[in-house]
Every structure is written in structure tokens, then in C-alpha cells.
Amino acid sequence: MALKRWDEILVNEHEMIERAMDVLRQELVKMEDGAPDVVTLKRTIDFLLEFGDRLHNIKEENWLFPLMVEKGIPQDGPIKVMLGEHEYERNLLDQMSKQVGFMETLPVEKRTAFQKNGL
Q: pTM higher than 0.90 for the full model?
């Protein structure tokens, strides 16, 4: 098996993250009927935090974005937008992670907010 280039690895990681996002979306939609699988929801959020943020996003922030700046892409352009998206996702997933364990006891308005924020 041939070694993959770094950009192929990042693309493959994005695809895994997208699959996890699909699982998260499916579980959030189930909340409309009041029946999400809380274990799947928690595992998916944990995966997105650990793999998606703490591994993948950090690679982009520490290696890809500096390379893009080195190649002439302005730091205040798309890189700033991507950094903002990373921070938004990080905060949202962290908040969801803190609430998911209490899903059954959350008041209806907080469950609704949890669902809407995740979708």
C-alpha cells in the first residue's frame, strides 16, 4: 500500500468527520419524536471533539494554515473564516458534550435549543 500525501490524509479525515456529522444530524432529528439514542449521540459528539477538533483541526491550524500563508493566502481571508468555524464548532460541541449526559432531564426548551444548535 502506497503512503498517502498529507493533503489526501486531510481529505480522508474530512470524509470521516462528514460521516460522523451525518450520524449526529440523524440523532438530532430523532429528538423531534423525543427518541434520540443518547449513547450514539454522546459517542458521536466525543468523536467530533477528539478526532475532528483535537486531531484534525489542530493539524489544519498548526500545519495547513501556516503553509497557506507562506504560499500567499492572506491570513485575514479564508483562513480567518476557517479559524472562526473551528472555534464555533469547538464551543458548540463542548457545550453539547456537557449537556448530552443529562438529555433525559433537560427541560423541553433546552432540548429544543440543543437540537437546533446542532442542526
A: no
